[in-house]
Amino acid sequence: MTKQGFCIYVNALIDGQVPLEWDDNGNAFVYLTQLEAERVIAEETIERCQQFLDGERTFEDATTIEEYVVKVEVMSNGSIRDDNNRYFGRGEHR
Known about the structure:
Elements: E1 2-12, E2 16-19, H1 34-53, H2 59-63, E3 68-75, E4 80-82, E5 87-89, E6 92-93
Antiparallel strand pairs: 1-2, 1-3, 3-4, 4-5, 5-6
């Protein structure tokens, strides 16, 4: 049995497209809706911009958004499969 969810991804130099957040069980953190995941990215972007205004980050660092949302299939054991047919679970990915 699977269900749909959304994960925040980044492009890692070695591993390519990977989930950014992991839960306490070692599975990728899954949001119920795309909007919920997008809002997390927006809130973090606002925080980075505030850090720029406070002199704690450079402008480029504060305004470069590397995170993006990917629709995933969530398996009953908490692992996920993304649209590129990559599987992530218990901290492992392939």
